[in-house]
From TrEMBL, chain A:
InterPro entries the record matches: ABC_perm_TupB-like (IPR049783), MetI-like (IPR000515), MetI-like_sf (IPR035906)
Segments passing through the bilayer: 108-131, 143-163, 169-194, 233-259, 279-300
Residues annotated as domain ABC transmembrane type-1: 104-300
UniProt entry keywords in alphabetical sequence: Membrane, Transmembrane, Transmembrane helix, Transport
A Pfam family annotated for this UniProt entry: BPD_transp_1
Subcellular location: Cell membrane
Keyword Glycoprotein: no
Protein source organism: Shimia abyssi
A GO term from the CC aspect: plasma membrane
Family stated for the protein in its record: Belongs to the binding-protein-dependent transport system permease family.
Protein name stated in the entry: Tungstate transport system permease protein
From TrEMBL, chain B:
Protein name: Tungstate transport system ATP-binding protein
GO-annotated molecular function: ATP binding; ATP hydrolysis activity; transmembrane transporter activity
The keyword Glycoprotein is assigned to this record: no
Gene Ontology CC annotations of this record: plasma membrane
Keywords, alphabetical: ATP-binding, Nucleotide-binding
Keyword Repressor (UniProt): no
Top-level taxon: Bacteria
Length: 312, 239
């Protein structure tokens, strides 16, 4: 059974699971095979079996010696891990593994909601920027393009501070909930979607400009027309947002906390399993993630194509 | 018959400037309530700019336009057909219905009216096609139907047949004449002398951004008053 499914690996509490990352000593020589540093008998790390390294939690792979340092006991090979990952991915999928379905659905829930909100803001914003001339337009567009490259970790940190108990929005108790993850992703995705939408709509506006001016349309009507006629390009913008969101780990790790059965999603599970040295499981999750992203893209494109042939 | 409320239009010393360069003007004229005016002149003379100016699409650096009604109201009774027709990425039917829908007419009624107009311009078979697949001649017919669907009092056409072949041009001209017979004031730019002779009731000859000569068609073609117009009609290169 994949280690992902084992409950209470680090003891039962959420707190321990989170502090796990912070409590690992870094000064000692690293456990050679795994990416995590060696472990001492730290009080926050529960070692159930003296033979098993708590960080990898793979029996027989890593052993704790007397001095408390994790040592490698089994040689692994990268190609082998990839193959194992594929097999494990297939197993997880075909056995309809409950935990896998849960975290996949949570991934989808968080990202789809974030993309929907970010699109609702970003698409009209991008369109408005294309249509409207005002003094600081260029500045706003440059800012938008710069925000597109916001480091997710920094966004995560800021949202974390805003939502934490002592922060301005602490009273809502949102930290370490999927809602917090959605908020962080909305912040990351909105500039991206707005910027791509702006570029697409700017071209369409250049084409439609004379006609819409001649027909004496209101600004609202212009934006509505451009959004509607540019819907395929805007769909691409939303899909780009989805791609960025579903694969994002830095921000949601910080604001979500990667809590099992609460805020664990595919990407944070991958980070966790990689940290524990469960490469094949991490890879399996990775393949599921890629599959999911491809599936959603195909689905949306096939839907938009039927619409095209139906209407045009 | 169209009821005339916005015309005549009086233009006073109108000037369009771009980066300190005068494109058109100063122009002073009166656009009478009825007629079919052909705007002629060499390329770059300022025909397009003049039409856009009259239509209210160019910012005036100087002078003013005076319709018989306030400007916003006047805008509603005008239409413009561009040299390169703008095809919205929608069906042919929805392209034609669009001006009605933006004027608050319910979608279904707008589509019904659009279907009638497609019938009039002979595009019924293409109604469900996407507009961008139409040929050049069909595009201009679509643009004409879209311009006429609101029943404008005045219709501006900017070299609509510049990219059409003989047959498409003839069909298009017939539609313009039909609109004119229906009472629509027509102002049409062309550099095709044959077309001007076939259609014109009167002629404005534009030269270097100014209204160089204005006369009835008979008079203009029989005895142009300025050497530039004479040279232009003889097919000489006028710059
Ligand atoms: N957007 C513009 N910026 C600068 N110059 C322009 C612009 N549009 C047109 N012009 C210039 O204005 C002059 C008149 O152009 P136009 O009205 O299109 O002439 P026509 O339609 O008679 O061929 C030309 O010299 C052209 O180069
Ligand atoms: Mg022109």
């Amino acid at each position: 059974m994949p280690t992902l499914l084992r409950r209470g690996q680090f003891g039962a509490t959420v707190c321990q699971a989170r502090t796990f990352w912070q409590t690992m000593p870094t000064a000692l020589t690293p456990c050679a095979i795994f990416l995590h540093p060696p472990l001492s008998n730290q009080k926050n790390v529960t070692i159930k079996d003296k033979k098993t390294c708590a960080a990898c939690a793979v029996p027989g792979l890593c052993r704790i010696n007397q001095s408390g340092t994790g040592i490698r006991t089994k040689q692994t090979n990268a190609m082998n891990e990839i193959l194992q990952g594929l097999i494990q991915a297939a197993q997880l999928i075909f056995s309809l593994d409950r935990d896998l379905i849960e975290i996949s659905l949570r991934s989808l829930y968080v990202t789809v909601t974030a993309v929907a909100i970010a699109s609702a803001i970003g698409l009209p914003l991008g369109c408005w920027l294309a249509v409207r001339r005002f003094r600081y337009r260029r500045f706003v567009i440059a800012t938008l393009n710069a925000l597109m490259g916001l480091p997710p970790v920094v966004v995560g940190l800021i949202v974390y501070l805003l939502l934490s108990r002592s922060g301005p929005f602490g009273v809502f108790g949102l930290l370490f909930t999927p809602t917090a993850m959605i908020i962080a992703q909305v912040v990351i995705l909105t500039p991206l979607i707005a910027s791509i939408a702006h570029q697409a709509i700017r071209e369409l506006w250049a084409e439609y400009h004379d006609l819409l001016i001649s027909l004496n349309t209101t600004r609202r009507q212009r934006i509505g027309t451009l959004l509607w006629d540019g819907r395929r390009a805007l769909l691409t913008a939303a899909l780009a947002g989805f791609g960025r969101g579903i694969g994002e780990v830095g921000a949601i790790m910080i604001v979500g906390g990667n809590i099992d059965h609460a805020t664990r999603v595919l990407t944070t599970a991958i980070a966790l399993e990689t940290g524990k040295g469960n490469f094949s499981l991490a890879l399996a999750l990775g393949f599921v993630l890629i599959g999911l992203a491809v599936l959603v893209n195909l689905l949306i494109h096939s839907l938009s194509r039927t619409e095209v042939s139906g209407r045009w | 018959m169209v009821k005339h409320t916005i015309l005549p239009l009086t233009v006073q010393d109108a000037v369009v400037r771009r980066r300190k360069k005068v494109l058109v003007g100063p122009v002073s004229m009166t656009v009478a309530p009825s007629g079919l005016t052909v705007v002629m002149g060499p390329n770059g003379a300022g025909k397009s700019t003049l039409l856009r100016l009259l239509h209210g699409m160019e910012r005036l650096s100087q002078g003013k336009l005076q319709w018989q009604v306030p400007e916003p109201q006047a805008r509603r009774s005008q239409a413009f057909v561009f040299q390169t027709p703008i095809m919205m990425r929608r069906s042919v039917l929805d392209n034609v219905a669009y001006p009605l829908i933006t004027h608050g007419i319910p979608r279904r009624a707008a589509r019904n009216t659009a279907a009638e107009w497609l019938d009039r311009v002979g595009l019924t078979d293409s109604a469900a096609k996407q507009a961008t697949v139409l040929s050049g001649g069909e595009r201009q017919k679509l643009a004409l139907a879209r311009a006429l669907i609101r029943g404008p009092e005045i219709l501006f056409l900017d070299e609509p047949c510049a990219n059409l072949d003989g047959r498409a041009t003839r069909e298009f001209e017939a539609l313009v004449l039909a609109a004119h017979a229906g009472g629509t004031r027509i102002v049409m730019a062309t550099h095709d002398i044959g077309q001007a002779r076939r259609l014109a009731g009167d002629v404005w000859f534009i030269y270097r951004g100014a209204l160089h000569e204005a006369a009835s068609a008979d008079q203009f073609f029989a005895s142009p008053q300025t050497p530039e117009a004479r040279a232009f009609l003889q097919g000489d290169i006028v710059e």
